[in-house]
Amino acid sequence: MSSDPLSDALGLVRARCLISRGFTAGGRPWALRFDARHRLKLHAAVRGECWLILDGRPPVRLDEGDLAVTNGTEAFILASDPTVPPLDAEELFATDPAPIVPLGGEEVIGIAGHVRLDSCCEDLILAALPTMTRIRAADPAATVLRYLLDRVLVELAHPGPGSEFAGEQYAQLILVEVMRFALDGRNVPETGWLRLLSDSDLRPALALMHEHPAHPWRLTDLAQAVSMSRSTFATRFRTLSGVPPLTYLHNWRIRLAQAALRDTDATVASLASQYGYASESSFSHAFTRTAGVSPRRYRSLHRNRATP
Q1: How far is the C-alpha of 217 from the C-alpha of 187, rounded, in Å?
Q2: What is the pLDDT along the chain (308 residues), one digit of tens a residue?
C-alpha cells in the first residue's frame, strides 16, 4: 500500500473503465434508456447536445464536451427530446456489433461506457459518488477529459493495431480525472469515503492507515498525526466518513485480506499476521463477522467463480 488512498482504493477494486461503444444520432428524434445495474456509467456528448433524464428528476442538458457519470442506482435516458419514447440501449447495442451505432444522422456523437469494480471495495466507489456527476465542457477539468474522449473516439471509429489496449488506458485515465473532479468538494456527498478523502486535515491519518494497515494504531496515535485532540479527531472522522476511525481501519484490513485471498495463495495464518491480528482465529472471526463467510470459504467461492 502507498500513502495515496485514492490510488490504493482504485487498485484494490481493480477498477477497469471500459468505453467500448459510441453512437451517432440526429435528423430525427431519438432516445435511449439505460437501466440501473449498480455500476458506474460514463456518458459524454463528444459532438452536439442531448438531454439526460434520471427517473423522477428534471432533465439535464448535456452540451458538447460535457461528461456525465451515474453511479448505477437509477435508470436514465439520453435523448434529443425528453418527450421521445426511448429504445432500450442494451438491446440496441446487442443487435448491432459496430463500435459506433447509428441512430440517424451525425449531428450528435456520444460515447457510452462503464466501470467494472471488484466486489470487495465496490461500495467504496459507488457510495462515494452522487447519483449523477456532471462535468461541464467549460470546466478546467474538461480540458484533459476532452482530449481523452477524442482519443477514445478515434480508437473506436478507426481501430488499428493496439486499439483495444489504447482504449482501455485512455478510459482508465478518464476514471481518474472523474474521481479527481469529485474530490474538489463540489460533488462529494455529505458523508462517506470520498468526503473523508477530500478533507486535507484528516487525509494524513487516512494515509497512515493505508500505508501501515498492520500497525496497532490507537485513536491517540492517529489524532496526534493530524494535530487534533482525541475526541475532536474521532468526532470529525466519524462525521465525515460515517464510521469511527478504528472501524474504518478494520474494514480496510478486511478489504486487503479479501484481495489477497482472491489473488494469492497466502495462508490464512500469514494473512492474520500481515494485517495485524494476534492469531489466525481472531482474524478468521473478524473476517467472518465482516464478510459474512470464513476466509477459506471466501477463497473457495472466488476461486470457483474464476474457473471457466
Answers
A1: 31
A2: 556 777 777 776 666 666 667 788 888 899 988 887 656 677 777 788 889 998 878 898 988 888 887 877 788 888 999 999 999 888 888 888 887 888 877 777 777 777 776 666 666 677 667 778 888 888 888 888 878 877 877 887 788 898 888 877 887 787 788 878 877 755 566 677 777 877 889 989 988 998 899 999 999 999 999 999 999 999 999 998 889 999 999 999 998 999 899 889 999 999 999 999 999 999 999 999 999 999 999 999 887 655 44
Among 1.10.10.10, 2.60.120.280, 3.30.365.10, 3.40.640.10, name the CATH number for the domain at 14-183: 2.60.120.280
- Compute the C-alpha angle 62/142/102, nearest 5°: 45
- Which of 110, 98, 90, 94 lies closest to 48 in space, CA to CA? 110
Q: For the CA atoms of the chain, what is the radius of gyration?
A: 22
How, if at all, do strands 31-34 and 132-135 pair?
Answer: unpaired
- pTM beyond cutoff 0.85: no
Query: Which residues, at least 6 apart from 66, have a Cβ–Cβ distance to it below 8 Å?
Result: 44, 45, 134, 135, 136, 137, 142
